[in-house]
Amino acid sequence: MSLKTAEKAIDYIFARTTEDESVEIGFFGGEPLLEFNLIKEITALIQSHKSFNPNRVSISVTTNGTIFNDEIATFLAKNKIVLCVSCDGPPKIQDKTRKFRNGQGTSRIVEENIRKALLVFPLLPVNAVYSTETLEFLPETVDYLSSIGVRNIFLNLDISSKWTKKHADQLPIIFNSLCEKYLEYYSRGKPKFINLIDNKITVILRGGYNPFERCRMGTGELAFSTTGNLYPCERLLGSDDGVTNCIGNINEGRFPIKTCKPISSQATNEECKECGLSDYCMNWCGCTNYYSTGSYSRVAPFMCAHEKAAINTAYQIIQKMKDGGIDFSHHISGTALVNTVTEKKQLESDIL
């Protein structure tokens, strides 16, 4: 991305957000740290902007973990930039899903860099993407990431995978195993934040997703490609052909002439309208729906099964934790990660 394009994108962002609105700006790729010097220059543009306010603007970098050094760590820490590393699991999984161009696996260097990063960023979020081939290894992935010191674990499905009923039928068993591990870590006084579980617990205790948690693609969320094209979500950028899902171009003065919110904030499936779990379900995720069904607002059967399994798992945990006298107020306030921030007292193992 040229600095000119970046500057136009930054101007666009600040011009369309109010002074009391939080702004999250993220660098993604590809591998953004291949352009570390450019990241530094764009960060300077953000921080020198007349509308920049460090109390409302956050910056993040999502990396595949193959590039990391002291210079990068120092810069990120100094500028309070959130680092997120992608690692799909133990070597047998990571080396299968993420390889160097020469075919060599990346697990060794990624694990090494995660350990280094944790020394600077103790709450480093690590993102594990699971596909049809790795779904069954989710519990093992959680154990692996925990073993190398990760406490902030994000499990995200590959929305481009060809999910089937067979995979859907596996979900209750796999998620039940995740439930047991979540409770086990709690009982040992070493809780982990696991997005699939903690986010659902929060939503259930709150009584459903609020409007700003739902899909805001094309309105509250935009992706700027290196060419200046605008997309409603970074997961819809694809090959950046300027046509598919493209809603404008920052360099050509073509700003979004349409938004996706009206058609992605609520599923059109009849079964969704009548489902008692709909308030806690991510049936509104436009990009997930698009990759699954070709429509921003139509939910695929697997996604329905996935959400039901996640919600049911969260319900089980809530009940077991309540039986154990565990305080869940941090989830209601949206700060479930507080569990991993402070040392917890040894909890009674009988909650299991």
General description of the model:
Among the domains are: 114 residues, no CATH class; 35 residues, no CATH class. It has 14 helices and nine strands. The strands form two sheets. The chain has a six-stranded parallel β-sheet. A three-stranded antiparallel β-sheet has the order 7-8-9, with no helix packed on it. Helix 3 links the parallel strand 2 and strand 3. Helix 7 runs parallel beside helix 12 and helix 8 packs across helix 12.
The strand line-up of the biggest sheet is: 1-2-3-4-5-6
Report the biggest beta sheet as strand number plus sense, adding barrel if it closes.
6 strands, parallel
Q: Please indicate the percent range of residues in DSSP E strands (runs of 2 or more).
A: 5-15%
Give the termini distance in whole angstroms. 51 Å
Total strands: 9
Order of helices and strands: HEHEHEHHEHEHEHEEEHHHHHH
What is the overall shape?
globular
Number of helices: 14
Estimated structural class: alpha/beta
Can you tell me the residue ranges where pLDDT is under 50 for at least 5 consecutive residues? 343-352
What integer value in Å does the Rg equal?
A: 20 Å
Work out the oligomeric state of the chains in this entry: single chain
Global mean pLDDT: 90
**What is the helix fraction of residues, given as a range?**
40-55%
